[in-house]
Automatic annotation (TrEMBL):
One GO term describing the cellular component: nucleus
Organism: Podila minutissima
Name this protein carries in UniProt: ubiquitinyl hydrolase 1
Principal location: nucleus
Annotated keywords: Hydrolase, Nucleus, Protease, Thiol protease, Ubl conjugation pathway
CDD domains: peptidase_C19C (cd02659)
GO biological process, alphabetically ordered: protein deubiquitination; proteolysis; regulation of protein stability
One GO MF term: cysteine-type deubiquitinase activity
Length: 1108
């Protein structure tokens, strides 16, 4: 026998062989084995840990495969392999598994400090019941000294194999799980949501809202029985919630995002959870009005917050109470959630230069020391806490992600942050005790990452991770500790880590909680009350049942379709009607398409084909069509009569092409009999026995520039090419003796002449090849045809049809009824000017008065105009990818009929300008065509005749563009070349109060954002800061400037952005903006949902919108 073991399993877990170290250990040292070799994995509970030894006294006497007490060995040819196999019974438990960490060692029997070792951890299952190392040790080195010890592992056939095993409990059921064939519903009772590309942020929030049962019930109460599924947000959300409760598989959200008005691109853009939550709730709140669900969102998520300024030495307080739907809490500088709340209500003392200007209540206007801050007057039953992981870094002038450690508890009492008053007294001593219900996690950095949700669906239930379409149970440590953030390690510890451990640590550092959901203990039973079938609208059940029935019907159709396949049948008729490359054109002459049952016999199929063409069955021969390597389609071989009783499924397997789903066949129809070698008559010649091949013949007429198929011939391979000329003349009806030329059609741009005296074999003609013939022209005939713009030879015509393309010229301005759509046949090699000349003939205009614009797809919207160039060809003007081997296909180009020459036009630039009226809501867009050398002064001069200035206005104009929420103003002398194309240009009449403001009145820039200043939107503006004006009056001026409706404006929150500290300072109604000691760079921020669809944010992120 050989000194080796049989290999039965390959190792897939990378391990390293550990060399001898200076401090030697013995394999008999159980403590060293269990504490150092297989050290306990933190946070996993050990079920048991033991070491085992197998004393092998005669290595060479072993069989090829042997089993020890708890493990077995096998190997490849040059290696021994040692495996660990679980001894637990698993026959009756298909889901049986054991999670074990183990090390396997082979050692010298007399010196246990000489050993080789491998370690791993594994989830032992019925599918992977043993695990180990196929390359445990080189079999050729067993008898040689190991390392520096001078002692071999095997001494006179004697060795010891030791196993140290630590078995762990698996409380979540997914420890070291491969997740192959994992079933979320079966393992957890819940299902996930499919990710459309970058919708993980949406999925995490939807799962959180779904398990807020009170909210789910309210959504079901919205009347949607008359709604259209693709346009109703409420109906689409009802559908998602219902499917999450009833489906066995992950649920799609495509219809939901379609109801938002999103396209596929929007689904590949990641957004912020908080912004999405605000926009979604705002939309649903409108849908709930006047229904049984009205007020549900207010009841669940809305609390009250008071901003105040209280004088220290005078009994006077200025305050403003407003609603909030979520709370944004600082992470930076706060170690715990309680610290963040304390920071939120932190009181600022206004003294010294910052003294508060108090007035009213009988007080004279004077400066007083005061305390400024915010306090909660009431907290909602469900708290959505947004942890500010993304902040503006003033030093970097960029947004950054804050990965600092920030701890949050399972339970928290927030009573200390609520103002004393009626609300607090009614709540009682435990009225502000909250329990953690959900953690929404972001893993990644500022530029991208992944969201998932950790949720506890039931009050006393387990925690689960909802990660798109996968749901798994998690431990409390995974909910809390692993999402606190931080995780910085010292350089020394980092240096000692393996690459895998460094990558794991880096991943953990960028994975942290982003949004927390707490539910008030007193309201938890009501909020998490399970829904029943009575809570589901009947119309929704009916609609979904109908859809389920339709899907089942389609499923049955698909199952039935597996019993059929398609056959594309081509005949002489299609060949003769074809005037281009190959045997036929699948676009213009596709032949017959037949649906064939797989079990149908070839004989029955041939009978169906014969009947469809009206020919006797014995006059038909069926040939297979194949796609050759040069991308041409030719006949290959006939299907013999011996296969008449063979099923079509087998025929397709034997004669078809695996790369093609459909089978393509050519039907040869013979009109005369041929003699076979045995003297019997047959409709067809037997190619394999007679040495004949079937070739196809085309004729090119240079006088009419037409190419046509004339039929086929059976020729001897050894016969000369010229011998078929009389048959060709006869087929075409040409006089006998007419001089002709012959060509072989090899591929579209390879049409080679054939020598008459060469044999078909010498010309490398195969069965199915195409031969083209034409008259042999005199030099005079050639010259005359060239003068007429015709093509004297077949190769020239093939080059023409290869470049031939049918182009549809469509008016760019579809509202201009004087312009028509024209279809022209052109060559892709035509120049820009040649194309323009062809269209100009139809339009009866000067070719230089036409401008072209390419279309991105057939029927798509126009793109940028095509710039005229004498070197530009039509093939560069049309959108690629819509032609078939040079055949005539439809392409689209938009055109405009100009009032000026294209040469003059291309020296101009189109400037898009938005005129802003008395309110920013009054917008009117304009397009100005100006010389590229123009200035802003020219822009204004051309714009003024198109707009109307205010009768009593300043007549002073401001021109600006917007980027990152900031205005960039232009002077009248600035060239338009300084305006970047992506930026919109705005022109407004400077308001009267700004134009006439005094030196004591500051002018502050104002910007719009949603939740965080990284999410800017809408058009910024400027505001005059008036002395002694309370912010209530300031808001009235802002309201008038914006032109917003009262409902939307009431939801706007105002903050002051302090440029020196990069902090956002809330502003109350009684505050006086002029008292804030404004500095250059400070700005007033308006926090509200973006309904403009105009994003001005940092980076490329698009503002979220949901169709109303």
């Amino acid at each position: 026998m050989e000194d080796q073991l049989e290999t039965t399993l390959e190792r897939t877990v990378p391990v390293e062989e550990k060399p001898l170290v200076e401090e030697q250990h013995s394999v008999q040292d159980a403590q060293w084995l269990t504490e150092k070799v297989i050290p306990p994995v933190p946070d996993l509970e050990t079920r048991g840990c033991e070491t085992f030894q197998w004393d092998i006294t005669d290595w060479k006497a072993l069989d090829k495969r042997v089993t020890g007490p708890e493990f077995e060995g096998n190997n490849d040819r040059d290696q021994i392999a040692v495996y660990l196999d679980s001894a637990e019974s698993r026959e009756q438990e298909p889901k049986w598994h054991v999670c074990a960490q183990f090390a396997l060692l082979m050692s010298n029997p007399h010196n246990p400090t000489v050993y080789t070792m491998h370690a791993a951890n594994h989830r032992f299952t019925t599918e992977e019941a043993d695990w180990g190392f196929t390359r445990f040790h080189d079999i050729r080195r067993l008898d040689t000294p190991h390392g520096q010890s001078g002692v071999p592992l095997i001494d006179n056939g004697h060795t010891v194999i030791t196993a140290a095993v630590r078995v762990y409990d698996d409380p979540t059921g997914v420890l070291w799980h491969s997740f192959l064939n994992y079933d979320s519903k079966e393992m957890t009772g819940f299902v996930g949501l499919k990710n459309q590309g970058a919708t993980c942020y949406m999925n995490s929030l939807l799962q959180s809202l779904y398990f807020t049962n009170f909210f789910r019930k309210a959504v079901f109460e919205i009347p949607t029985d008359e709604d259209e599924p693709s346009r109703s947000v409420a109906l689409a959300l009802q559908r998602v919630f219902y499917q999450l409760a009833t489906s066995s598989n992950s649920v799609g959200t495509t219809e939901l995002t379609r109801s938002f008005g999103w396209n596929s691109l929007d689904s590949f853009m990641q957004h912020d959870v908080q912004e999405f939550n605000r926009v979604l709730q705002d939309n649903l709140e409108g849908k709930m009005k006047g229904t049984a669900a009205e007020g549900a969102i207010q009841k669940l998520f809305v609390g009250k917050m008071k901003s105040y300024i209280k004088c220290i030495d005078v009994d006077y307080e200025s305050s403003r109470v407003e609603n909030f739907y979520d709370i944004q809490l600082n992470v930076k500088g706060c170690k715990t959630l309680r610290d963040s709340f304390a920071n939120y209500i932190d009181v600022e003392t206004l003294d010294g230069e910052n003294k508060y200007q108090a007035e009213g209540h009988g007080l004279q206007v004077r400066l007083e020391d005061a305390r400024k801050g915010v306090i909660f007057e009431s907290l909602p039953p469900v708290l959505h806490l947004q942890l500010k992981r993304f902040e503006y870094d003033i030093e970097r002038d960029a947004m950054v992600k804050i990965n600092d450690r920030h701890e949050f508890p399972l339970e928290i009492d927030l009573a200390e942050f609520v103002a004393e008053g009626e609300e607090k007294r009614k709540a009682g001593p435990h009225g502000f005790n909250y329990t953690l219900h959900g953690v929404l996690v972001h893993s990644g950095d500022l530029h991208g990452g992944h969201y998932f949700a950790l949720l506890k669906p039931q009050r006393d239930g387990k925690w689960f991770r909802f990660d798109d379409d996968r749901v798994t149970q998690v431990t409390l440590k995974e909910v809390l500790n692993e999402n606190y953030g931080g995780g910085d390690i010292s350089p020394e510890n980092l240096a000692s880590m393996s690459l895998a451990m460094r990558q794991l640590n880096r991943h953990k550092r960028f994975t942290n909680a982003y949004m927390l959901v707490y539910i008030r203990n007193n309201d938890m039973d009501e909020i998490l009350k399970p829904l029943t079938t009575d809570d589901i609208p009947e119309h929704l059940l009916r609609r979904l049942d109908d859809e389920k029935a339709a899907m089942e019907s389609k499923r049955k159709e698909r199952e039935e379709s597996t019993q059929f396949f398609n056959v594309n049948v081509i005949s002489d008729i299609d060949f003769k009607a074809h005037s281009g490359f190959d045997l036929y054109n699948p676009m213009t002459h596709p032949g017959k398409h037949l649906k064939v049952r797989k079990q149908e016999t070839f004989g029955a199929f041939r009978g169906v084909v014969a009947n469809s063409y009206g020919y006797p069955e014995d006059q038909l021969s069926v040939w297979t069509l194949v796609k050759r390597q040069n991308d041409t389609v030719r006949t290959d071989s006939p299907i013999p009569d011996t296969e008449l009783n063979t099923s079509m499924e087998v025929i397709k397997e034997k004669f078809g092409t695996r790369s093609q789903a459909d089978m393509r066949l050519f039907i040869e129809v013979s009109d005369k009999t041929a003699k076979t070698p045995n003297g019997k008559s047959s409709w067809f010649q037997n190619d394999s026995q007679s040495g004949t091949i079937m070739i196809f013949i085309k004729y090119y007429d240079p006088f009419t520039s037409t190419l046509e198929g004339v039929g086929k011939l059976h020729v001897q391979k050894q016969s000369k090419v010229g011998e078929i000329v009389p048959q060709l003349l006869e087929k075409k009806g040409l006089p006998s003796g007419t001089a002709v030329k012959l060509f072989e059609e090899i591929k579209p741009m390879m049409i080679e002449p054939m020598k008459m005296k060469s044999t078909f074999h010498h010309c490398e003609i195969q069965g199915g090849d195409i031969v083209v013939f034409q008259k042999d022209l005199t030099p005079k005939e050639v010259a005359e045809l060239q003068q007429q713009g015709l093509r004297p030879s077949a190769p020239q015509h093939y080059e023409y049809i290869f470049n031939r393309v049918v182009v549809e010229f469509k008016p760019k301005n579809e509202e201009d009824t004087t312009l028509k759509t024209y279809t022209l046949e052109l060559s892709r090699k035509n120049s820009y000017d040649q194309v323009a000349s062809k269209l100009a003939e139809k339009l009866e205009t000067d070719p230089l008065h036409i401008q072209f614009t390419a279309a991105p797809t057939p029927g798509g919207q126009p793109r940028m105009p095509i710039r005229r160039s004498t070197n530009l060809l039509l093939q560069d003007m049309i959108s690629p990818g819509y032609s078939y081997q040079g055949q005539s296909t439809l392409n689209l180009i938009y055109y405009e009929k100009l009032d000026m020459s294209i040469v003059e036009l291309e020296n101009k630039r189109l400037i898009k300008v938005t005129w802003l009226g008395p309110t920013l809501k009054d917008e009117s867009p304009h397009e100005l065509l100006l010389a590229k050398t123009s200035s802003i002064e020219t822009v204004i001069a051309n714009l003024l005749p198109k707009v109307k200035l205010s009768p009593n206005g300043t007549k002073k104009l401001r021109t600006f563009s917007v980027y990152n929420g900031k205005m960039k103003e232009y002077g009248i002398g600035d060239p338009i070349s300084s305006i970047h194309d992506p930026f919109s240009l705005y022109v407004e009449e400077i308001p009267l109060d700004e134009h006439e403001h005094t030196e004591l009145e500051a002018v502050i820039p104002c910007f719009h954002f949603t939740g965080d200043i990284s999410r800017m939107h809408s058009i910024p503006f400027k505001l005059v800061v008036k002395e002694n004006e309370t912010f209530t009056d300031t808001k009235n001026r802002i309201h008038a400037r914006l032109g917003m409706n009262d409902k939307d404006f009431a939801k706007v929150k105002f903050v002051l952005f302090n440029s020196s500290s990069a902090k956002l300072i809330p502003i109350g109604d009684d505050d006086i903006l002029a008292n804030f000691n404004l500095s250059p760079g400070d700005a007033l921020g308006l926090d509200h949902i973006d309904k403009s669809g105009r994003s001005n944010r940092l980076g490329a992120e698009k503002a979220i919108f949901i169709r109303g």
